[in-house]
Design brief:
By secondary structure, the protein is α+β, with helices and mostly antiparallel strands. The protein has ten helices and ten strands. A hairpin with a 2-residue loop joins strand 8 and strand 9. It is elongated, with a radius of gyration of 24 Å.
Length: 316
């Protein structure tokens, strides 16, 4: 077992990964052990044993289809390969030549609902002398341990996120009950930290309600306030329970969509447009997903704003 006092459980997923990876390398050898995340076409390295290949470090992103793990999950090769040259699917994988891989071992990390989160895997530049298949039961056990800790931590994070949104009145807009600009900035910053930590996907919507000034001028501010409240209610009903909707000022709104890949974000944007229309509200909406490279959610928001203004200009 990892060097961890039984009376003191791992503090979090990160600590569990560090202990498990170090233990597996010390016990079974192989130069580089990793915990990875699969996200669409990306294979994201979340944690590694230290002091190894600079191309494979925490935070590095590779093509999922190029990885040995993707081929293992597709059944094209075994989870334990003492000599990757003997497995055609592994020998021809682009990452094999890129990293100079001689041996490989990998098992999936799955969430309780069966969804693939990523992999617990190891590579070494040299073929292994031992039969790595004998190590698989222990490695699978540690993958299940990490899955259990991860699932509990993710649920605790979701609960904390919901509590955060609900409890701090100083971060809410009095008219609509949504987060205000201050609350939005906090939510964006904290979600960015979660994305970096867990490799989560995320997306943002930029929403601009049409006609507020005209209604204020023609019918008075009470009518304008009613428009904003209807818009806020429609947006809340369009998103998921853990999504964040904020009024950023005037007729501008932002929506943060945690753990949301691009396709789902587009569907939510369409549903929001439909719900707004049912409420008698027209709006321009821009949607952008968080890039896996530099910029994070701040870059995604800037891109969503640009797309929203483009949509607004296009509608005349």
């Amino acid at each position: 077992m990892p060097d961890q006092d039984a009376a003191q459980p791992f503090e979090d997923f990160d600590a569990a990964c560090a202990a498990v990876l170090d233990y597996l390398r010390d016990r079974f050898g192989l130069g580089l052990w990793m915990v990875t995340r699969t996200l669409g076409e990306d294979w994201i390295v979340l944690r590694t044993t230290t002091g190894e290949d600079p191309l494979v470090t925490a935070g590095s992103v590779h093509a999922w289809d190029d990885s040995l793990c993707s081929r293992m999950m597709a059944g094209e090769g075994p989870p334990a390969a003492p000599d990757v040259r003997a497995i055609p699917a592994y020998a021809t994988a682009p990452i094999t030549a890129q990293l100079g891989i001689g041996s490989y071992l990998g098992v999936p990390i799955e969430l309780p609902d069966g969804e693939l989160f990523g992999t617990l895997c190891a590579i070494d530049p040299d073929p292994a002398e031992q039969d790595l298949a004998h190590e698989l039961p222990a490695v699978r056990m540690y993958a299940r341990l990490l899955s259990t800790i991860l699932a509990r931590e993710l649920e605790a994070q979701r609960e904390a996120r919901r509590a955060q949104v609900a409890e701090d009145e100083a971060t809410h807009d009095a008219l609509t009950g949504l987060l205000n600009r201050r609350g939005w900035d906090i939510a964006l910053r904290e979600e960015e930290a979660r994305c970096v930590r867990y490799g989560h996907p995320a997306a943002v919507l930029s929403v601009d309600v049409d006609g507020l000034k005209e209604i204020n001028d023609a019918e008075g501010h009470a009518a304008g306030d009613d428009l904003l409240r209807r818009a806020a209610t429609a947006m809340r009903t369009a998103v998921r329970a853990h999504d964040v909707v904020a009024r950023l000022g005037g007729d501008e709104f932002g929506v943060l969509l945690p753990e949301c890949p691009g396709g789902e974000a587009s569907r939510l944007a369409t549903r929001m447009r439909d719900r707004l229309a049912i409420a008698g509200v027209t709006a321009s909406i821009g949607c952008a997903t968080r890039p896996t490279g530099d910029g994070g959610l701040v870059a995604a928001l800037a891109r969503a704003d640009e797309r929203m203004y483009r949509a607004k200009r296009g509608r005349g």
